[in-house]
Amino acid sequence: MMTDSSLLNSELDLQQQEELYQQLLLQTIGQINSESPDSKVIRPEPGMCVKTFSEPSKEKAFINVCQSNSVPPPPELSREKLVELLQSDDPSGFRVPMSLGEPHTEIDNSSQGCTAYDVVINQDFFQKCQKDPLFQQFVILVSVEGLENKYNLELSREWKVLKNRKFLGSISEQNIRTKSRPVIEELQPPEKSPATTKSLPRPEFTLIVEPPAGDPEYLIAEIKLPGVGSSRSLVLDVGEDRLVLTARPSLFHLDIFHPFLVDQENSVAQYNSSTQILTVTMPVVSS
User: Fold this and answer.
1) Which residue, among 258, 183, 244, has the nearest Cα to 5 in the 3D structure?
2) Residue range 123-141: average pLDDT?
């Protein structure tokens, strides 16, 4: 099935577009928070509490990294591979499934108000992180970036793991997805001509097949979008053998075919506003 590139020019109102991209850019398979019937309520176990600050206000912020086996584990990752990943240009390319809870106001040990965020990861992966400081720092970094993307905030990279506290506040239940749902929603065709998109500059991109040898399992597109400050200006459509992206207003347009058939419903995307790279991970059905 081919994707009509005209779908990208739909004039959604701001609320519709924001809802779409919260799903598009923050969902990892089976763990988006939702009140959908295809979700279940879990009560995670405490893990570790990380103290940091919001930028530029320097207000205290705490990240409660919790654990639950209801959240799927990430792909197997050795320490050697993690070192290679952290030395790469885009460490965020490795996906750690996690459930990101809503911010809640708490009182710290100094009786001062602060904001806390609950992040739930797989219990076995959490235990692995506890045994190795490198993995621990990695999962904190991934949690920080996930919260920044979801809540459009900036957190300091100077954090501290509290030794005598595993959780700030009280543990709340969270809804996690039990079934994947389409990440890319079909947009309505526009009334105006899509010809203007063809004249937009084409962004630099890379297609990566994982694993590099043997039967392909994932096709990963890394698209550089200099000057794009927020995911809200992106319109993305994933077809079975086609990927189309437009960055508004009048920044970039990308329309490419690839030699694979991919699973559209389980494809996920994440925009890193720091590196200004959009990463689209597409499970391969057949080549």
Assistant:
1) 244
2) 92
pTM: 0.51
The mean pLDDT value of the chain amounts to: 78
207: tokens are 């297609």
| Residue 17 exposure: Cα atoms within 13 Å on the Cβ side | 15
17 within 8 A of 196, measured Cβ to Cβ = no
Q: Is 124 helix (H, G, I), strand (E, B) or coil?
A: helix
Alpha helices, DSSP H, located in the chain: 14-26, 79-87, 123-131, 133-151
Q: Nearest CA to 117 among 133, 101, 95?
A: 101
Measure the CA–CA gap between 135 and 184, rounded to whole angstroms. 31
Check: CB of residue 86 under 8 Å from CB of residue 192: no
Instruction: Quote the CA–CA distance of 149 and 31 in Å, as a whole number.
Output: 16
Distance CA 205, CA 222 (A): 6
pLDDT at position 77 is 85
Dump strand ranges (E) for the chain. Answer: 39-42, 45-53, 60-67, 99-100, 104-107, 113-121, 160-161, 174-177, 205-210, 218-224, 234-238, 242-247, 252-257, 261-262, 268-272, 277-286
* Residues 266 and 183: beta-carbon distance below 8 Å: yes
- pLDDT score of 118: 93
Structure token digits, residue 16: 């519709």
Rounded Cα–Cα distance for residues 257 and 260 (Å): 9
The residues, ordered by sequence, that sit 6+ positions from 21 with a Cβ below 8 Å of its Cβ are 231, 232, 234
pLDDT of residue 22: 46
Q: How far apart are CA 222 and CA 118, in angstroms?
A: 29
83-92, 94-103, 219-228: lowest mean pLDDT where?
83-92
